[in-house]
Structure formats: structure tokens, C-alpha cells
């Protein structure tokens, strides 16, 4: 411990000598000076050192600290998988009204929510941990509707497989 303190004091003393030597340039007549303007109020001393500069590191007892910046979510949420889906149709002239009951498995802990898509258009945005949605839509005769569910977070989006049904 005594040796460490002696080393610290020696480094501090050397640092002070270097600093004070650099500061005591004024008054030395062997350094050239240059006038800056017509009414000088002082002089600028130019000094060329012939020796190799020495870097002095002064150890301290205070460990360095760093504040971590906020990080975005590095991984995508897990892909939602269908657990059940079924539909009913109320037929009318020229088509019908389809009620689609969608249910999926929430397989993620880091999703910020879910988006439900019908024919590649978002029809609902749901909160995290959601697992179902009911959609009621008109369907023309011979046409179908396609559905998928997307889990998302700040940087990622992952989608389920697409299911397609229609009223016949």
C-alpha cells in the first residue's frame, strides 16, 4: 500500500513539473516573439521541444462510470400460430356476410402488439398478449377473404400463415 501511495505521489509531482514548466515560458529571452498587431499588449512565444513528449497517467481511486443508452429490441417476436379459426356465412343475393373467428397462440414475451390483416390490409391493431379476433365482412359470390396475424415490436414484424375462405 505504501509503495502504491509513493508511486501516486511521484506521478503527481512529475505531472506538476511538466505543467509548471510549460507555463513558465514568459520572461525567457531566448525564445523568439512575434507581434500580432500594431498596438501589441503582449507577445506570443513559440517553443520547439527537442525531446520526446511523455504521457503521464495519474491513477485515481474513482472507477470510471458510463451510462448505457437505451437499446432497441434486438430480436423479433415469435411467429404467432393459428390455434383455431372458423367461419359462418349468412347468404344473401350476390354473396353473403362472413363472420370469421380467429384464434392464435401468443408465443412471445416481447411483442408490442398484434395486427390482424384481411386481404393484406390492416383491419385491427391489438394489445400485447391478445389471442383472438372476430371479423364480420361482406363477401361477393365466388370471392374469398384471406387473413393473417402479425406480431410486432419496435423493430420487427412477423406474420402467421395466411388462411383463405369464402361464402359459397
Structural account:
This protein is mainly beta and 168 residues long. It has two domains: 2-45, no CATH class; 81-165, Immunoglobulins (Immunoglobulin-like, Sandwich), CATH 2.60.40.10. Helices cover 13% and strands 37% of the residues. It has one helix and ten strands. It has one helix at 2-23, and strands at 33-34, 44-45, 81-92, 95-105, 113-118, 121-126, 132-140, 145-152, 157-159, 163-165. Strands 5, 6, 8, 9 and 10 form a five-stranded antiparallel beta sheet that branches. Strands 3-4-7 form a three-stranded antiparallel beta sheet, with no helix packed on it. A two-stranded antiparallel ribbon has the order 1-2. It is rod-shaped. The model is unreliable at 33-37 and 43-47 (pLDDT under 50).
Q: Which stretches of 5+ consecutive residues score pLDDT under 50?
A: 33-37, 43-47
Number of helices: 1
Q: For this structure, what is the CATH homologous superfamily of the largest domain?
A: Immunoglobulins
Q: Give the overall shape.
A: rod-shaped
- Average predicted confidence as pLDDT: 78
Strand content: 35-45%
CATH topology of the largest domain: Immunoglobulin-like
Largest sheet: 5 strands, antiparallel
Structural class, from secondary structure content? mainly beta
Give the H and E element order.
HEEEEEEEEEE
CATH-derived architecture of the largest domain:
Sandwich
Structural Rg: 38 Å
Number of structural units classed as domains: 2
SS elements, strand count: 10
Helix content: 10-25%
Q: End-to-end distance, in Å?
A: 90 Å
CATH C-level category of the largest domain: Mainly Beta
Amino acid at each position: 500500500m505504501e509503495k502504491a501511495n509513493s508511486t501516486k505521489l511521484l506521478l503527481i509531482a512529475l505531472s506538476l513539473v511538466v505543467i509548471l514548466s510549460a507555463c513558465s515560458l514568459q520572461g525567457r529571452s531566448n525564445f523568439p516573439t512575434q507581434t500580432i498587431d500594431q498596438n501589441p499588449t503582449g507577445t506570443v512565444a513559440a517553443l520547439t521541444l527537442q525531446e520526446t513528449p511523455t504521457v503521464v497517467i495519474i491513477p485515481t481511486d474513482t472507477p470510471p462510470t458510463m451510462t448505457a443508452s437505451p437499446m432497441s429490441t434486438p430480436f423479433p417476436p415469435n411467429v404467432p400460430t393459428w390455434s383455431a379459426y372458423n367461419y359462418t356465412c349468412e347468404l344473401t343475393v350476390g354473396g353473403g356476410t362472413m363472420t370469421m373467428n380467429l384464434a392464435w397462440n401468443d408465443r412471445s414475451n416481447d411483442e408490442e402488439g398484434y395486427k390482424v390483416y384481411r386481404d393484406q390490409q390492416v383491419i385491427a391493431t391489438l394489445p400485447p398478449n391478445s389471442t383472438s379476433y372476430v371479423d364480420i365482412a361482406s363477401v361477393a359470390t365466388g370471392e374469398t377473404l384471406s387473413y393473417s396475424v402479425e406480431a410486432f415490436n419496435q423493430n420487427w414484424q412477423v406474420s402467421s400463415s395466411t388462411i383463405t375462405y369464402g361464402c359459397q
